[in-house]
Amino acid sequence: MSVHLLVVDVGTTALRAAVVDGDLGIVDIEQRSHPPSSPFDGLVEFDAAALAEVTLDACRTVVERTGVAVDAVGITNQRASTVLWDRSTGEPVAPGLGWQDLRTVTECIVANAEHDLSIAPNQSITKLSWLLSETDGLAGRDLCFGTIDSWIAWTLTDGAVHVSDATNTSTTTTGMRTADGSDWSDERLDLFGIDRAILPRVVDSAGVIAPATALDGAPPLAALVGDQQASLVGQGCVRPGVAKITLGTGGMLDLVTGADPPTVVRRSPAGTYALPTWSIGGELTWGAEAIMLSAGTNVEWLRDDLGLIETVDDSHEVAQRCDSSEGVVFVPAPIGIGTPRWDYGARSALVGLTRGTERSHVVRAVLEGVAHRAADLVEAAAADTGVELSALRLDGGMSRNPTVVRALADATGLRVEVSPTVEGTTRGAAFLAGLGIGNWSDVSAAAELWEPVEVVEPDPEHDREASRARWADALDRSVRWHPELSELEL
C-alpha cells in the first residue's frame, strides 16, 4: 500500500502544505503568503490566529485536490518565532514575534555582559520575557508558549497537545535549554522570569504525537522539526562527512557530528553553533550550523535597486556573458557577516572595478561572492567539528542557478549535489513523519532516498588557492565598516 504524507512547512513570509509520497516525491503543494508586519523599525510581528487559519485551509485544500488518504502529518518551520496563547481559549494573547524581531537587543547585551549568558535577539527567551512583562491582562491566565511548530501542532490537534521537539526548543533556538539539551535551564528561566508551566512538553522529532483531528480522517501528527534540520534529513545528510547548504534569502550550512553533546552554550571558535539535528527514541543526535546572513537578497539587490537584471533567473544568463569577473570581487554583507567573523558592522564591498568593468562582470561577481561566503561556512564547520567533508548538498532558491552551483564547487573544492526539490525541508519533514509511523525503520534510510538532479565536480583547472586568497583580501576590506556595530557580541 502506498504511503502519503502531509507536510506543513512554515517559512518567514509564506507557508506550504504538501502531499508527499513514499519516495519523498512531492505529489502536490499549496502555498499561501503570510508575511510578517513591521510596525516600527526593528519590530517584526505576525498574526498567529491568522496563521492557524491559513495553515488549516492550505492543508485541507491540497489533501482534497489530491484525493488521497493521508497516513501521517509532519511539521517543519522557521525557528525561534514566538507565540503566546491562552490554554483555555486557544487564542493568542499578543502578536507573534518573528525571529528577526530586534526589540530585545538591549536585554541580550545586558545578559551577555552582566550574567555571561550567550543570548541573541533571534532566540525566543527575551521575546517571551518581553511579551510576559509588556502584555496587559495576563494575570491569572493559563498561558502556553510555543515556537511555530508548537502553535501549529496545537492547531492541528484542536488544542489536544502542547509540544515541541529538540530542534525547536534547543538553546540555539530558544535560549532556554541546557547545553546538552536534556532539560530547560532553571538559571535562564529564573533570570527572565519564565515559569516552566507555560513551556511545551518536549517530544521526539519523529514519532506519533496525537491525531490531527482538525483534518479529515484525523491522521497522526508524527513529526516536528526545525527547517534547517529538516533540510539536512531531506538531503540525506544523516551521517558525518556530508553537509547540506541552503541558499535562500540567507544561507545555512548544517552537518551531523554524532551523539556527543556540547558542554557549554557558546559559539564555537570558528563561528559555528552546536545544535540538535533530531531526537528519535529519546536519543539526541548533534550537529553544527554555520550561518550566512545574506545570500539571495544580493541578487534581489541587482534586480530591484541596481536594475542590472530584470528577474532573479536572469542573473545566470547575464553572468555567462563573460568568462570571468575579470578580477571584480563582491562581498555580500548588507547586514553584516555571520560565520566565521560575526561582524554586524561589516558591509558589502565591490572591489576590483576598472573602466572596462561591464554589467556581466558585476553580476557574476555577486553570484561568485555568495559561493565564496558558502566556502567560508564549509571551512568554519570543518575547523570547529573536525569533520572532513566529501560532498556538499545544495537546496534553496539559488540551487537552481548554474553559475552559483559551478562557483560553489570551485570555491569549496567539493562535489556539489543539487537537491531534486528547492525545499529540502519538505522532504525531510515527510521522511520523519513516515519514520514516526514505521514506514522506515531508521533515519539512515534517508540517505538511500537521496537522488540529486545534478552533480557538479570542482574544475581541475580552477586555481582555488589564488581565488580564495583574493576573496580573503576583499573580505578584509568589508569588515568593521561600522565599528560600533562590530563590537556587538550576540
How does the SSE layout of this entry go?
Blueprint lengths: L3 E7 L3 E8 L4 E8 L11 E2 L1 H19 L5 E6 L5 E4 L9 E2 L7 H11 L8 H11 L8 E4 L1 H9 L6 E3 H4 L1 H4 L11 H6 L9 E3 L2 E6 L8 E7 H8 L7 E6 L3 E8 L14 E8 L2 E10 L3 H9 L9 H6 L9 E3 L17 E3 L7 H27 L5 E5 L6 H11 L2 E4 L5 H13 L8 H4 L5 E3 L7 H15 L4 H4 L4
Parallel strand pairs: 1-5, 5-12, 9-10, 13-19, 19-20
Antiparallel strand pairs: 1-2, 2-3, 4-7, 6-8, 11-12, 13-14, 14-16, 15-16, 17-18, 20-21
Helix pairs in contact: 1-4, 8-13, 9-11, 11-12
Structure in words:
The chain has 16 helices and 21 strands. With 490 residues, it is of the alpha/beta class. It folds into two domains: 4-227, Nucleotidyltransferase, domain 5 (2-Layer Sandwich); 236-418 and 460-490, Nucleotidyltransferase, domain 5 (2-Layer Sandwich). The mean pLDDT is 96.
Give the N-to-C terminal Cα separation: 50 Å
The CATH first-level class of the largest domain comes to: Alpha Beta
The number of domains is: 2
Q: Give me the secondary-structure category.
A: alpha/beta
CATH-assigned homologous superfamily of the largest domain? ATPase, nucleotide binding domain
- Rg is 22 Å
Mean pLDDT: 96
CATH architecture of the largest domain: 2-Layer Sandwich
- Give a short account of the largest sheet: 7 strands, mixed
DSSP strand content: 15-25%
> How many individual helices?
16
Could you say which overall geometry the principal axes of the C-alpha atoms support? globular
